[in-house]
């Protein structure tokens, strides 16, 4: 039997991260590849108690739910959003299977195949997969330590007239960088002027190491949901736990209604068990204290990895110290191919994601993404030692 | 702000069932509309104990999982499938957010916009929404009490050369009918001869009132997954509980791998919390005994509703007694428009789904779908009485 697959899925590259994760099944492998939160920090007991309260409420908890998601949880998320200057009603929000689904549905609802979408270079791998699946033309603006460069974006907008900007402005994946306030305002203005909508993907915004600085969301700077240009997505995957697969999108209620229509076809609704557990959790558990705790811990793990890399004193290795999020984005010596390096590193028992995965075009091959949240102490030490050894050898070899 | 939505989502009709469910929020409304299982039969205590065992296993349970789904659960479902003559390995299976997502992903992977897809007339509403979202041309073959009519299908295949057949051969939604063995074999042969793949959607197959008869799945008749023509989907939504949103697709491992690629973009993976709970549940809970219990109960509820309708002795009302599933499909007097009837019925405090929602073309307006699983006893009695009153009045009026 010859199966003929759709052109969109056929051309889709399998995720490098996924393929690497398969390589890292061996027990002695230390992986800086996946964007995994630290399991030992998951609030298991609190989630368990929350689940108990859901079951106590009776069998209705196991029935079909609304496509838009469990209303009490939407109300609770609205309250949490308001604290960050994002004032929305439950009608302006839909719950999704992680924020990944929110991105996919937004793209389904707001674009036609062949439309152009503007992104930052580099950008989140699995969003590039969404754009490929939907047949979009990805155009990538340059970025620097302050975020996407508006002049680069403007030129591309003029040439390609993209419908949408997809952005991860706060502690982005893969770079961990944060857009400056000025850049945020410039990009908002630029998109408004050109009638472009913005998807602001914010899974990492809560994971900030030092709270002195403020990074207001594009959504909060843009005003309100109604008639707004910004569609904001976030998730509990990084702050509570990924297995509960609960994310959300907020925006004008007309957009949310369209997403609900698309979601009906996609899966009717996401797990209401998970949504009810999260709702119960938020009632008794101090999530903000928990976020403070994991942010502190992740900040320490980042510092640990950074100091190990500094100590190694490899020539021509550079990075920008992240102020939050889960990733360290490292530039390797010119001409060093991180994909080739990975094969060598895996033999030594350490994995990372080659930067090439995060580029839609103009791939910068001498880059890599290191996750620092999933390991610590001796494992991070050994992992970095193996990595440094691989880079050393590889530099000599190449 | 003028939002421009994609043509696929713009043209999508909002689900009639959904709109009706909104109408039925009032407390005195008796709804035969939604395809809701009986809440009071959900195995809440067993699910709760299963969840407890998941939490006892520790924090790893809350981490990211595989796109293909939790492996132990896939292995358990393989065992359950084998009992039904469907022999597959975990590599030939992917877990999805309900079987709705399995249908959506199969369509994404196996079709291009503009392709034709063959269905039975009438067919499952939310699958029609998937086909509309993906830009497919739906062609509908006639059906009778033995299922889809091969001669009608053959003619359409010759004219339109569809890539796929979408079918619900066992206790279908909305008709509750089951394809005869002969029709099953004819359709398998017809599709094989024409190089067409078959999506066999089987959410209701387990809910059989009398086990004397056997209705082997198209998948089991077709042989094995490898190189097979049949892609089979099912779900725990009807046998355990919908809130856990766990369905699956089985088929050739190449198809499954493509689905996994599409699913990565769609949502990375479904709730692994739910999947782990179901896996724990299957270890201790006698699901087959539970299925026997709900099948018996649903059979009684169907008989109850049927006898009430018979007693009413309305002229020109007809239906085929279902042998399983959740729906009674009723033909009303010629010329009676069930959508108009619904507005009248809702005023009397009873709701159903007008049959028109289940047609891609050649709509038969004098049909309605009644769910009999969610109500019983006095509520069913009152509901049917109200419905009979509405039909009586309406027949006089029209």
Task: Write a structural description.
The structure is a homodimer of 398-residue chains. With 398 residues, chain A is of the alpha/beta class. Chain A folds into two domains: 7-42 and 289-397, Aspartate Aminotransferase, domain 1 (Alpha-Beta Complex), CATH 3.90.1150; 60-284, Aspartate Aminotransferase, domain 2. In chain A, 44% of the residues lie in helices and 14% in strands. The first copy, chain A, has helices spanning 7-11, 16-23, 44-56, 71-83, 98-110, 125-133, 150-160, 181-193, 218-222, 253-267, 272-284, 287-312, 338-348, 377-397, and strands at 30-31, 93-97, 116-120, 137-141, 143-144, 147-148, 164-167, 197-201, 230-235, 246-250, 318-319, 327-331, 350-351, 353-354, 367-371. In chain A, the strands form four sheets. In chain A, strands 2-10-9-8-7-3-4 form a seven-stranded mixed β-sheet, with helices on both faces. In chain A, strands 11-12-15-14 form a four-stranded antiparallel β-sheet. A two-stranded parallel sheet of chain A has the order 1-13. The longest helix of chain A has 26 residues, at 287-312. The radius of gyration of chain A is 21 Å and the shape is globular. The model of chain A has no long low-confidence stretch (mean pLDDT 94). The interface between A and B is large, with 81 and 81 residues. Chains A, B: Its cofactor is pyridoxal 5'-phosphate. Chains A, B: This is PLP-dependent aminotransferase family protein. Chains A, B: Belongs to the class-I pyridoxal-phosphate-dependent aminotransferase family. Chains A, B: Homodimer. Chains A, B: Residues 30-376 form the Aminotransferase class I/classII large domain.
